[in-house]
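Hello,

I think I submitted the KG4 job twice by accident. Can you confirm which output corresponds to this input? Input:
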Amino acid sequence: MPVVLGIESSCDETAVAMVGTDRRIIAQRIASQDEAHRPYGGVVPEIAARAHAERIAPMIAEVMEEAEMELADLSAIAATAGPGLIGGVMVGLVSAKALAMASDVPLIAVNHLEGHALSPRLVDEALEFPYLLLLVSGGHCQILRCEDVGQYRRLATTIDDAVGEAFDKTAKILGLGFPGGPAVEKLAREGDPKAVPLPRPLVGGKEPHFSFAGLKSAVLRAKEAQEKSVRGEPVEPRTQRDARPSTSSGRTDREGSRAYSDADIAASFQQAAVDCLVDRLERAIDSGGHAPALVVAGGVAANASVRAALEALAEQHDMRFVAPPPGLCTDNAAMIAWAGCERLGQNDPLDFKARPRWPLDPDAEPARGAGVKA
Ligand code: KG4
Ligand code: ZN
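Support: Only one job matched these inputs. Its output is below.
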C-alpha cells in the first residue's frame, strides 16, 4: 500500500504524519507553539520559524520510527509549500526536499488550503466530488466548490478579516489569551447569545462574500461600554444602544453594569459569526453552489456551534454534512500527507519555490469592496 510522509509548518504548529492511501494515519506528531507566542498575543513569524527548525528533524525521526519504516519505503514526501508565513514554510519545504533528494523519493509540494479542502475525504471514504466547502481558518474564510483534486471554484471570500481572526480578536478583547478560538467557544457556553446586540455584516447581501471587521469592532465597543458601566461612568448613547438589549433605553449606566457579562459577549459574538456563516453559505447554495455534500474544514470548523448550525443548514438543503474531527480541522500534517496521497504521481521539482500567497482558485476575481487581506 502506498504511504506518504506529510510535513506542515506554515503557521504555529509543527506537524509530521504518515498516511496510507487506504486512509490510515500510521503515525503522527503535532507540536504546538502556543507557549512561545502567548506573551505576544499572536504568532510571531521569527519565533515560529525558529521553533519549526528546532523541532522538525526529531519529529520526522520519531514518526519514521513509530511507523517502523525507512525513507525508501515511502511513495512520496509531501510538504506544505504555502500559503503561510514564509520562514516556517521554508523550514518544512527544505526539510522535505533534503529527504527527497537523499532517498530518491518524489516530492509533492502541497497547498496548505488544499490540505484543509481534502481533509474531509481522509475521514469519509464516501465523500465524492463535487462538494461545497466552507473553509474557515485564521487566515482564510472562503466558500469553494470542489470539483476534483486540484480544481476549486471560489464562490466567496472575505472582504476584510477571516472568521478565525475575529475569534482571536474577541479572545484578546476579553483577555482570554492565545489561541483565541477554543477559549471563546468555552466561555460562550456560559453566556446568553442574545444578551448583546451585534451586527451581522453583509447578511442578506446579493453576493455570498463575508466581512468580519465590523463585528470585531462592535465586540470592542461592547466590552468598552461594559467596563465603563462597571466603573459607573456614563456610556455614550451610541455605544449604549449598540451594546444593550433593545428595551433598555430607560436604564441608568449603573444598571447597565449588570446588563451583560464577558460570557454574554462571547456567546453573542459566536452567534453573530455563526449567523454570518450560515447566511452567506445559504446565498452560495441558492446561487449555483448546491452539491450533494456540504463540507466544513479549517480551524474554526472545530467549533461545535459552527458545526451544529451547518449540519442543520445541510439538512434543510438536502445535502449530506461532512466535518473532520476537531483534531483534523486545526493545522495538522495528516491532511498534508493525505493531499499527497490524492496527488500521488504529480511530482514537483526539487527547486519548487515556497509561495507565501497561493490561491486555490487562481481565476477568482477579487471580491468587490475587498481590502488588502482578501
Ligand atoms: O486552520 P488553522 O489551525 O490555522 C490556519 O491555517 O489559520 O486555524 C486556526 C484558527 C484560529 O483563528 C483559531 O482561533 C480558530 O482557527 N479556531 C477556532 C476553534 N479552534 C480553532 N475558532 C473557533 N472555535 C474553535 N473551537
Ligand atoms: Zn490551516
